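FAQ

Q: What does a record look like?
A: Structure on top, sequence underneath. For example:
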């Protein structure tokens, strides 16, 4: 271990200095005047003649202090050399690594570089361009851990704007681990772009189960990429959203009942249907009254119903439960029952039932594969946290890519608990505050 020549000034820091120089052999010394050097000067690299001590050079860093490293001079040829300063570089690397991690965590939580600059003014002053370079370099140097044993995949797209230019974000998410398989930004989302994206990031020779929204163009792309090794599931959540959109915003109780019967095909909505059914006869009676009385009644009735729906949702949340999924035979029977009555339904509902019938194999694929997902909820949740809607129009392309990479790293658990605080890293510079 490095020999310590302690003085009244550096005596309180003996343990700290020992830790700093622990990787050096006992050929080195740290003098009472604060110089780090070899006890016996080395041989000249030019002529091989023994060198002699020749003062020191100071390596400094603003706000942190400075360390003195010994110099050597050859009396034969006049060659001058300096002692190794790796210990100082390591101290700075540790300190600025923590500074970078702080800034990166702030960026992960959508804090602007201007705000980070003002925050760092209280810790260690850095301008926003320096902070941006630190964060972007750290992101580029960190790799997202690869996902192994991929069986169930969620695929979706997001359409952010980089300034005035439309961009397309394509994402693959592993259903089991919820880890990001791939997340990239493109200028187009045509079939060739999607096909190339899939080929680069998935094994096309293995059987795979992919969940997407109801865009029908995906099926042809998947067949070209995976052949007969793909099972394609349409997201039931997207189907339910389309069903809701098939109805007017201001529905009657009868229309609301039909809507929930449609939603009841794949998910258990019996309680809502039962509640609405009790209001049907009353609605028929209220229609015979004045328009004002009917509007007042239906507003109150729907308010009671929506409050009932909210209470059901809150109860599921408290019990950590999701909507109960129908068995395949229940779903099939519910669909057939609605299809038999479809002649009396509004046109948009009849068209939706025809579309469900056409897409039935893709809507029910999850029933025939163990543990397969039926919705794209995981990737929708990932999008909502990684690039929020209002930010899709605020960021330039580098900012969008930065948020994508940070979100993927967070999902992979890269941002764990800090191993060392900024204060601890700063304390290591205390022995050098009075030098230089």
């Amino acid at each position: 271990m490095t020999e310590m020549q302690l003085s009244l000034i550096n005596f309180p820091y003996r343990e700290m200095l020992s830790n700093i120089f622990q990787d050096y052999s006992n050929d080195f010394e740290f003098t009472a005047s604060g110089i780090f050097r070899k006890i016996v000067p080395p041989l000249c690299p030019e002529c091989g003649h023994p060198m002699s001590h020749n003062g020191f050079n100071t390596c400094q860093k603003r706000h942190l202090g400075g360390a003195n490293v010994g110099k050597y001079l050859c009396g034969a040829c006049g060659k001058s050399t300096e002692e190794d300063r790796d210990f100082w570089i390591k101290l700075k690397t540790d300190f600025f690594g923590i500074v970078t991690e702080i800034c990166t965590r702030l960026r992960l939580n959508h804090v602007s570089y201007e705000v980070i600059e003002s925050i760092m003014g209280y810790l260690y002053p850095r301008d926003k361009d320096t902070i941006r370079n630190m964060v972007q370099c750290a992101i580029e140097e960190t790799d997202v851990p690869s996902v192994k044993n991929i069986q169930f995949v969620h695929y979706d797209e997001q359409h952010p704007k980089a300034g005035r230019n439309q961009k397309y974000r394509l994402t693959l998410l592993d259903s089991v681990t919820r880890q990001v398989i791939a997340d990239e930004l493109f200028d187009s989302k045509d079939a060739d772009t999607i096909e190339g994206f899939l080929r680069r990031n998935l094994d096309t020779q293995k059987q795979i189960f992919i969940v997407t929204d109801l865009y029908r163009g995906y099926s042809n792309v998947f067949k070209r990429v995976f052949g007969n090794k793909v099972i394609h599931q349409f997201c039931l959540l997207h189907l339910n959203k389309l069903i809701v959109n098939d109805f007017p915003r201001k529905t009657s109780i009868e229309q609301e009942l039909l809507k929930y019967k449609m939603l009841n095909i794949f998910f258990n909505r019996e309680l809502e249907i039962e509640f609405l059914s009790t209001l049907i006869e009353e609605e028929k009676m209220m229609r015979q009254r004045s328009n004002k009385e009917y509007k007042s009644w239906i507003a109150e009735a729907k308010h009671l119903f929506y409050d009932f729906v909210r209470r059901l949702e809150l109860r599921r949340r408290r019990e950590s439960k999701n909507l109960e999924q129908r068995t395949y035979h229940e779903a099939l029977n519910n669909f057939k029952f609605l299809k038999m009555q479809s002649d009396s339904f509004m046109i948009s509902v009849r068209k939706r039932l025809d579309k469900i019938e056409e897409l039935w194999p893709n809507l029910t694929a999850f029933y025939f594969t163990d543990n397969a997902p039926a919705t794209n909820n995981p990737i929708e949740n990932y999008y909502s946290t990684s690039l929020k809607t209002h930010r899709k129009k605020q960021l330039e392309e580098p900012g969008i890519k930065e948020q994508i990479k940070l979100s993927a790293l967070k999902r992979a658990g890269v941002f764990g608990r800090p191993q060392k605080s900024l204060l601890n890293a700063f304390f290591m510079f205390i022995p050098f505050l009075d030098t230089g």
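Q: Is there anything notable about this one?
A: The radius of gyration is 33 Å.
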